[in-house]
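As a warm-up, study this chain.
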Amino acid sequence: MNIIARVLKMLALLVASSLSAVLLAVCIALGVFLHFDARLSVADVAELEFSEPLRIYTADKRLIQQYGKKRTPVTLQQVPEVLIDAFVAAEDDRFFDHPGVDYQGILRAAANLLTTGSKSEGGSTITMQLARNLYLSPERTYVRKIKEIILALKLESRLSKGQILVLYLNKIYLGSGAYGIGAAARLYYDKTVAEVNLAEAALLGGLPKAPTTYSPLNNPELARQRRAYVLGRMLDTGRIDQTQYEQALQKPLGLATHTADARFRAGYIAEMARQEMVRRYGDKAYAAGFNVYTTVSSERQRAAMTALRNDLLTYDARHAWRGPQVSLDDEVLTHEEQLRQALRQQPAVGGLTPAAVLEVAGDTMTLQTRRHGSVELGAADNPWLKPGEQAAAMATRGDIVYLKHVDGAADDDAAGDQWQLAQVPEVQGALVALDPGTGAIEALVGGFDARLSLFNRATDAYRQPGSSIKPFIYAAALANGFTAASLINDAPIVYGTYSGEVWRPRNYGRRIHGPTRLREGLVHSHNLMTIRLLRSIGISNGIDYLARFGLPRDRMPRNLTLALGSATFTPMQMAVGYAVMANGGYRVTPFLIDEIRVGEDRVVYKADPAIACPAGRTCAQLPMADMDMDAEEQADDADENYALRVITAENAYIISDIMRDVINRGTGAAARGLGRSDLSGKTGTTDDTVDAWFAGFNSKLVAVSWVGFDAPFTLGVAETGAHAALPMWVDFMGRALADVPESTMPRPDDIVTVQINPRTGQRMLHDSGGIAEIFTRDSVPTEREARTYRGFDPSTSDDRLF
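Now compare it with the structure written out below.
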């Protein structure tokens, strides 16, 4: 009995001890709970609005870029049952049964920790994951887990299971920048959530565990394996049957070809729109779900990007081969996966494809690309290879070089077997195209590739325009009594400067032409007579007139070098100036954003640009701009729907007509290849060929192209505007106007045609035997002047003669 009593006593003590341990554990747990509970609160998540990204689109609704988290919120009613089943089966199969914390799951996790020492099984429910995403950091600590449990219980006490589920499905990160099932369905399948099938739902349901690892864009095979696991869980939990399981298991991943990686690329446009949205809305711009529709045509934007890249690569091929920058060792070259990974790490910019040189024999190279397989280049595909030269002088086995697809594709998806050796050019360029009637930006490229540099040369690079400034000088001359037939002496000029130096300007090619009609001076870009024109009208007067075109006064020198383009303007400012001549005399303001919406429906901004007076319509309320008034005063005086007239329609018409001759028989003759008679334009080249320009238009589109180095440096001998910049303009306008009928501004009623003597510029006494020239009615040379004309006497005047 004594032994029995002792045993009973021991058992009583053990029970008391165990109860004390349990009681102690309960007290500790309660204390921990109360400690954190007092410090944790949940917001009113029932009405929680998720941030949506800023999306930038072309005018034809092509997505260019989005900033902020990719998210497309959905309601519970929009989510199909198959998607809910996939997420619940994969992440929390007792979601509808537990109170926010699955104690069975926690016990399984604890047992796993005790037996293996691993924390791989976290026991997190969907509610706990939501609590972590809403309120906690991603750190993996026991303290965070305790907080997670408490917050999950609080969420379940305030929200229904449906509310928790839809918040979770909208919040969870699902890889490749997509937050929530709405964004993920669109990203991976280009579908709405309602359109997702079983196999697709299983793939999406498997992503929360490791979104980056299981993203089908990053690791297709791992994504397939994870999808199979989710389908298995759906089968085990009775959410699908065996037939559905087997059919879904055999389906291909079926990813959409239109993913974020293949979106329409227009980096400079996207950055301009982003900056404008931040200026308007601050940081709210990134999270309020703004959809920004720009004025840019995707077709013309692609044409601009293609034209600029082709032009810069062609320029680069005329100059030095700089050699490969990276080389791989033989071990990498002989292992396919290592080689593919090495090529993946090389930046694919400007539509160029990185390739590894595998073999060089004579004038032939064999290369390997990541996406397009093996490529062989012969001598004809190597613009730097001179006749008889060996390709080994340029690259050897293991070197990484770039290839250009010969169709000139402007994206990174070029494919085919026609390739050419290329290199990322050091030279830069810009192209901007406007609708001259409204100022809407139709296309803009600010450099070879925005991924290399976001510096926008179209809007921010102030460069000397060279001879492309001359149309403005000649327009000023017409406004000050000159005509297209006025004779100006194209003869040597020598000026002394304040520093004691001597300025001896020259014509390109150093030829002089003597007395020359104004039309011919602009057509052939004679420097000496342009200087005389500016001197005749006066520098201050000239600056005032150029300012009418929107050219900034503070960028113009107050001396005669202005006539040769020593001012500094951006390509955008030049495009605005040329638009005045294209639209008949009105200064429009360039703009990029046409409409801003919140979501799909609510319009919060709609552009209302001041437009040029439509052709054939009388806009009597439009005043001629008073350049002594500031911009606000001018805007107050103008009708809100129409732009200010800054030059007469007659002046714009005559200058445009002369610039058509620049293309027909002058420095822009290469543009004749477009086969159009409605194009006007002007080349521009600065001293030492540092900057090369071409600016031109018809009445529907104005475009300006520029080529130069960011740090001003000569482009090289003969790299004039006609050689370096005009090909870009021709390439772009050929594509942009391919299906557009010819269009010029209508001839003003006050313009008349008169026969003149081509040598003297005077009116012919008879209506035959001369050449046709256009004048305003009050500037036509009289018959009396024709009878009394004695010829040009260079000793009397350097300026005009009538």
